[in-house]
Amino acid sequence: MNAPPAAHATPKKARSAGFALLAPAVTILLVWSIVPLVLTLWYSFRNYNLVDPTLHGFAGVNNYWYLLTDPDFLRSLLNTAILVGGVLVVSVGGGTLLAVLYDQEFIGRGIARVLAISPFFVMPTVSALVWKNLMLHPIYGVYSWMMRAVGLTPIDWLQRFPMATVMMIVAWEWLPFAILILLTAVQSLDSEQKEAARMDGAGPIARFRYIILPHLSRAITVVVMIETIYLLTIFAEISVTTAGGPGVASTNLAFLIYSRALLQFDVGGASAGGVIAIIIANIVAAFLVRAVARNLEV
């Protein structure tokens, strides 16, 4: 006996209604993401300078060629790689050790966990201002006071070690994120497995190397992926503390694009930098997503 026509029409009507309800949101998201991308691509092939209206017209690949042959661009790429790599080493390495530490029972563990995680909730601009004016100021900073207290000469960290100082500030911000994720992963490890290893004579280092670290591998991969995507766009910390200097010593790719667009008013060159940044970010994201997927399949 055939089903009545209304029974076949109901799923189609439901799909049509769902599509009609989702269409406005999907359209807005597409316009929101595609229009800026298309405009950036368009301006990257144009001569467009905000303070020189006589400079206009099709530029071809000149903006890309000028940018790729600019030593500042190569330096910004190197600084971006150093910043991302350095922060990942500090945050993931320190986060793993602190996660294992905070998994142990000790007096004040709850307060210690809250204090360790709290920097993640401070806005990047505020963090940069605190470190620049309160902690690292060569005259009034806490570190300068500590160095004078032991007879040492205070150091102007942001002038002498700008990239390392920015890296330290960003690592301070992202270390709590790694602790939060890795501590959750450590707590999911079966305690009987660790107890059995201890009864078999495995010491703390052996238990960490052969039980805890393999268990954390998936969580570490996820932390590396998320942090890398965000670290490629670090801007506020550099703008507040060093403004990319001295020279271009602490300029990363994001700050170079900002500098080209709003300090040198070269919209065409900045757009070319934006397109290159999008390509690099997508290559890195594709590599990391594949690495995470491969790790999750194990």
TrEMBL record:
Ranges annotated as spanning the membrane: 21-45, 77-102, 114-131, 166-189, 210-232, 270-293
Gene3D superfamilies (alphabetical): MetI-like (1.10.3720.10)
Membrane topology annotation: Multi-pass membrane protein
Gene Ontology annotations of biological process type: transmembrane transport
CDD domains per the UniProt record, alphabetical: TM_PBP2 (cd06261)
GO cellular component, one term: plasma membrane
Cell compartment(s), UniProt: Cell membrane
PROSITE patterns per record: ABC_TM1
Domain of life: Bacteria
Keywords from the named record: Cell membrane, Membrane, Transmembrane, Transmembrane helix, Transport
Domain called ABC transmembrane type-1: residue spans: 77-288
Sequence similarity: Belongs to the binding-protein-dependent transport system permease family.
Protein name as it appears in the record: Sugar ABC transporter permease
